[in-house]
Amino acid sequence: MRLRSSAFLWLWALRYVSAFEESEAGVVDWHKELVGVPLTDSTKALPMFIRSDPSSPTKKTGMAVATKSNVLAVLNPGSTGNVVWRREFDQAEGRILQYKTHRDALVSISGAGGSHVRLFEAFTGSLLWERQLYPPSLGRLLEPANLGVDVTFWHELSDIDAYVLTNGHTVSRLEGKSGKTVWNWNTDDISTLLTRVVLSSTSIHTVGLTKTDSYALTITTLDRQTGALVSQSQILSQITRGMRDVFVLNTRDTKAPAVVWFEKHDGTLHSVVLDSNILSPEIASTKIRFAKVHDVQLDNEGLFVAETKDELPYVFGMYSTGLKQEWDFDDSAVSKSDTPSLFSGSLDREGNAYIARVFWSLSTGLAHIHTYAAHGSEGKGISTGATFPFNTAEHGVILHCAIDAFMPHSYSIQHRMLLTTSTGAVQLWQLHDLQWTRDEALTDIKVAALVDLPERKIAEEIASSEHRGFLERLIFHTVGAQNLPQYIAQFSKRFATGTYTITPGSSSSLDRDPFGFRKILVVATGYGTLLGIDTAQGNVVWRKIIGVSSTGPADVIPFKMFVTKSALEGPDPEVVLVAEKKLRGRKTKTSVVFHFAALTGRWVSGGAAGIQVSETEVAEAFILPGQSNTIGIVSADGKVHVYPKSQPTVDGASQLYFTRAIGSELRGFAIESDLSTPAIETWKKAFTLPATFPNTAASRLEVIHRSMSPIASYGKVMGDRSTLYKYLNPNVAAVLAPDCAVRVVDLVSGAIVFDSGALPAPCVPPKVAFVENWLVYAHEVGGNSTDKGTKVVSVELYEGLGKDDKTNSIESSSFSEKSVKLHAIQQSFLFPYPIVALGTTSTKFGISTKGLMCNGHVQKPNLPSPPTHSDPRRPLQKPTAQDQEEMLFQYEPVLPPDTRRIVTHKNQVLGTKHIIGAPTLLESTSCVLAYGLDLFHTRVTPSGTFDLLGAGFNKLQLLLTIVGLSFEQYIAVYNAADANGWISSVVAIEQHALDAIQRIGEFTPDKPNHDVTISDLRFILEFSRSASSYTTLASLYWLEDACAFTKYMKEETVKDSSFIETLSTFASMTVEYAIDHAAGPETETYNCLIGWSRCSEHVSKEPIVSGTDVGNLLAVLWDDRELFLKAMTYTVSPGLSPVIYLL
Asked: Which terms in the GO cellular component ontology are assigned (predicted)?
């Protein structure tokens, strides 16, 4: 199995997608490299400080961690704690079981039973070699998983090979340079589980446990050169807790291998030295009875810690003569207000050993560290104590402490600590000073929301004037008037130069930037924490603990998150998290809500304990229709609870509907609008596994709701001027079933409106994105070299059975026949790399093209093809003229790579699981967040920056030109000498125009002598600039006559360029007046107005201008685009701007 060495985030779109240039990397985006929460449940994979080989000319120090995200990494202990290198192991291979450093190398063992062994360069991460010792299917699934796995090295350069124990019964010697197997040895005793290996000068000793009434120690000795069995012995013992009470050490005086074990029943310590064929166990000569022992990772130094029932710790050393007490921590008497102690050990550059004891004291409110140095005070040993201000309210409980210590002189110990906390934080402390914090809980984000920031001036004004009276406000505004000249100067400069600060993050306060790019990211993690992140640079601005977590999951499980108060409603946006809470000592869960401020994490109500709304778990949560700040929570017993508590009324609906996925069943429920009665089950569908699927296949359903965003267009106009109306039923969602089929289901009626069909078994559930009427799903396909890869299916859902078949799906009842009357246009493509996440962009008004974001793992910089390739309507044959007009080109089954679509540049964004988009104040721009292992935030422009002027645009010159032309027009129009003549000419033009309008009204196609000249058209155009023309031209009858006349003249007239130019201008003026007619009642949208599609607000209203007439007019404008553009210079009206956009 390969390592996932790099990942890229790609952007696809229906039409065109703009990625930013490389020079903008790090300016408009940020990437937070994460490694995951370190493993603390196994002594074989604990975080530790590592150092370069003492003989190396360069002295290096790092911090090695193996994490719950299956990542092996080395961190820099410098000022930021950045990642030196990291490797993400394939989840299908299995978790990391052990890692160990030797000189400048680092070896890892992973997979079931330790099937994979890899050797890395410790400070660069370069993979030196990797070996798969056996198929993962043959691995033993032991508990804990790292039981039966171990690795060791000989300390001299004469032997650089690795000695590896795997599967609890196999010992292998692997060449240090290549990883090739030198020899293997397997035990024949199935009742013995081998757990540790240790070397002597000529032998390798394995230590195992044989199950009897308790456990018996089995010591097996092999020849290092050949792997031949030398001897095997068994020592009877009273070990009851397995390998937790067994240590394999080297003696401190002779460096011979030894075994130490603890027998809990009588609190005694036992040891045996493995330096002869005859093993002689010894018992520690002490009257102290111990309750537990601690491995401090000082095997080669022969040190460990034993603790009494009263939690008094003692340091013991292993010698050739037996165990000896080295030190005790009696100088730090244990108090009932202290937490249980943590112990860890380390070596300095000279090889001297240190042991640290860390605990937190409730009485002092501080964390304490006591450090023991065995060689201090001239070999007598020394212990020093210190405190540091660890914040338990923000970071929870300390789970592990790795120490790095040294002695500047014989009676002083300097140290730094790497802490792992229950909230998933990793911290480096230098004595009592916190150096940095890494919030690794962000690798387990359960729910996330991007919240808009308030504008600074508005927020300050609201905050300062909230309690002011009239007189105070009057004085405030009077004093503030002194800043008016400065404001005018700044406004003039900005207006003239177009200078805006588009790079957020310069302000320390959380304020909105001019274009709304900067937001606050609010996340809830699986470690019982809430975090607020400034999207300007990715910095964490606040943290809150909502759940208790130690080595296991937190007792609070986030369900959904809602923004209940936006920045438009006040200066302090608010968020509500709906979650489930486990009760101690009970298997049931309760439903709770947490209400807090998005910018600061301040609790609005309820506090860190939350507010319990139900004694059962959450079934569904949603914002009540018509009440943006009221949340409905449906509990498992079917009851509906409202937060905040009130007497809600549901606007515009007699019932509410929701669904629950229970196993392989999807069930629909209905709730009465007064929310007084429990939900009633209305339908149920079972998605059972096909018989061809294995019994081990997952049987759970996943419901993917459609992204909610504004819809700018309800249809797609084809090249033949017909229309495909989008299927926009608000009640549908995509459902992933156990058979890996993607189905679109109406969650109100239970009707299946689209079914992709099951995938061949076995299968991995596809990745799905669903927005408006566009559904995209991707899944891996197997086969030969020609068809192996990822299959990407693009589906568009349209109303009715074909073109111009409209069912008004956005308003139709889910129980009507029209709601399931639709057709799908789909096409599949083959993509050469796996896709691990899909998401779509979102813009403020929904006008920009929807962009599809995908993340895939690759090993070289190959990227997907241009996004226009993913249009499902691409023709299979040579494109026709109509296809070309819609910018469609011939279908090709493979999506080729395209480096222009990278938005991550050189960043390795690993482990992405979710991609979400958020709108900005610019319609062209969408913010995109990808999260999983890493966090990556950027902004993209799916349709280009059409609403943002380029950096080279000379705005000052444009303003001066406008001012000059306006002044010239003023002089020309209001010259006193010409005023009377101008009035007379206006009257004459108006009369000529009215006569021409009358002749056009009398025109019919069967009367070729229309008697309308080019002069008549120019009189009408001139007349249209007068305000008095509106009542004449903005008329239904005139618009119909003008449309008919234009169509006829375009088809029948000779190719007279002057006439065609005037006719194009005439046609544009006709469309313009049709749009201007929208000022009338019940005609608020352009689609409704000109008959392209029926808007949802005015279903029963007839269009002012028919779709056929408008199509004919646009055909005139389209065929003579050059003349039309020239003609536009003579027509100045705000009505033209939407016409240009529609074109």
From this structure: EMC complex
Give the total residue count for the chain.
1143
Q: What pLDDT, on the 0 to 100 scale, is given for residue 157?
A: 86
Residue 410: per-residue pLDDT: 79
Cα gap 1030→993, rounded to integer Å: 13
Q: Which residues are CB-contacts of 921 (< 8 A; sequence separation ≥ 6)?
A: 514, 515, 516, 844
For residue 646, the model assigns a pLDDT of: 72
Query: How do beta strands 96-102 and 105-110 pair?
Result: antiparallel
Give the pair of three-digit tokens for residue 721: 């001027």
pLDDT at 552: 57
Amino acid 542 reads W
Res 1141 pLDDT > 70: no
Please tell me if the domain spanning 38-186 has the same topology as the one spanning 199-328.
no
For residue 341, the model assigns a pLDDT of 92
Task: Decide: 779 and 790 in contact? Cβ < 8 Å.
Answer: yes
Has residue 959 got a pLDDT over 70?
A: yes
Residue-wise pLDDT for 609-620, tens only, equals 899 999 999 999
Cα 305 to Cα 254, 322, 352, 373, distances in angstroms:
21, 15, 17, 14
Nearest CA to 301 out of 373, 407, 219 is that of 373
More confident residue, 976 or 482: 482
CATH of span 199-328: 2.40.128
Q: Stretch 1091-1096: mean pLDDT, rounded?
A: 47
Q: What contacts 24+ positions apart, CB below 8 Å, involve 815-821?
A: 815/748, 815/749, 819/729, 819/746, 819/749, 819/751, 819/753, 820/746, 820/751, 820/753
Q: Give the CATH number of domain 38-186.
A: 2.130.10.10
Rounded to whole angstroms, what are the CA distances from 702 to 250, 656, 661, 737, 943? 54, 21, 7, 7, 32
The ranges assigned to domains in the chain are 38-186, 199-328, 332-423, 710-835+869-895, 957-1142
Per-residue model confidence (pLDDT) at position 1097? 53
Spatial CB neighbours of 264, under 8 Å, sequence gap ≥ 6: 238, 240, 241, 245, 291, 292
> Are the CB atoms for 422 and 550 separated by under 8 Å?
yes
Short-list 723, 722, 728, CA closest to 746: 728
**pTM higher than 0.85 for the full model?**
no
What is the Cα–Cα distance from 451 to 459, expressed in whole angstroms?
15
